[in-house]
Amino acid sequence: MMDKKEVKQNLYSSLKELGLTEIESNFYITSLALGPTTISDLAKHLNMSRPNLYKVIAGLEKHGLVKFSERKKYKRTFVVEAPTVVLEKIRKKRESVASLDQTLVGSMPDLLALYRQGASDTKIKVFEGEEQWMKLFFDVLDETNETISFFGSADAFIEMISWETEKKWIKKRIQKGIHLNALLLPGKDAHTLKEKDEEGMRTTKFFQGETPFVTGFMLYANKVIIWQPKAPLAVLIEDQYIVQMLKSIFQTLWYKS
Questions:
Q1: Are residues 128 and 32 in the same domain?
Q2: Helices 163-175/130-142 angle, 10° precision
Q3: How many CB atoms sit inside 10 A of residue 78's CB?
Q4: Binning pLDDT at 50, 70 and 90, where does residue 190 land?
Q5: Whole domain around residue 64: which residue ranges?
Q6: What is the total count of domains within the chain?
Q7: Which of 117-121, 153-157, 164-168 has the lowest mean pLDDT?
Q8: Whether residue 74 is found in the same domain as residue 199
């Protein structure tokens, strides 16, 4: 069971999340303990002038956390709303944010299509470690609804992420209706993918190079990710000219394979 200090801290954090200022949050917690109180007594207890007191109350009223008794004005008592009201408002806010997040994710491909990269500086980000690699891998599916192109070693890639993760990614990609063009180095996992192209919304071709390699690059949403699975390391490049060059290279190798 939490002690009083922890309870107050949790309540304070919730109030801050709702957008209350520090003085409004402290005022709410103090008033909660006092119960119904006249403005005069409240001002004395908090050692606060009435004008300042009314400013704080006005702030709490905007958040719907204040109520007065129904008595005549000069006899009215003031009390803040119960913590259950705070909880209800927190839940509604989080539901609203979650809904907004889903809406934004759904419209991200269209928003990125409107984004004009050419007039902006080139952006290069380096992602190191398995956790960052995985996040970037799944973020790809939130940023496009068009065909993704991958060139490289599927065997090295899957060895790093595992088949379980690969299947989750494939499932999410299929749910979003995104096709994948994969130009792969020959290998056991690459051939397994090729055998399931139709059900996996994928077209797989094999690149017959003289020197094998373990890296790869992925083209999507006017971006390119260079994958290095042995570190693991990923480099995200947002530059329309570099992307255009790699698209041209991919398409040339694709049609020759």
A1: no
A2: 20
A3: 19
A4: very high
A5: 4-87
A6: 2
A7: 117-121
A8: no
Structure tokens at 35: 């119960």
pTM summary value = 0.58
Where is the domain boundary, 33, 65, 87?
A: 87
Per residue in 11-48, pLDDT (tens digit) is 878 888 888 888 888 888 887 777 777 777 777 877 88
